[in-house]
Amino acid sequence: MSKKKKEVKSPIDSMIVDLIMEHYNIQMLEGKGESLSGEEFMELVKLAESQYYDHVLTDVKVGMA
To answer: How many domains does the chain have?
Structure first.
């Protein structure tokens, strides 16, 4: 019998991945080479954190958990 690991999914991690993908898509559409500096990454992390907390504060189900 194989045991499956319980996957822990972080909503903020998903938001960061989505923002990174958006960053690369914009660069591609603008004809730029796809790149992401450490500074740009940290800006995306801060943006995801802000969006996550806004979501938590405005979502009744999440706020009551």
So the answer is: 1
Segments forming the whole domain that contains residue 39: 11-64
- What does each C-alpha distance from 29 to 25, 57, 65 come to in angstroms? 6, 34, 40
3-state secondary structure of 44: helix
Domain-embedded: residue 15? yes
Task: Take residue 26 and report the two structure tokens written for it.
Answer: 């914009």
Spell out a b/e string for 19-36, using b for 16 or more CB atoms within 10 Å of the CB, else e.
bbeebeeeeeeeeeeeee
| pLDDT tens per residue, range 19-52 | 999 999 999 999 999 899 999 999 999 999 999 9
Residue 3 lies inside a defined structural domain of this protein: no
Q: Is residue 51 part of a domain?
A: yes
The pLDDT value recorded for residue 6 is 65
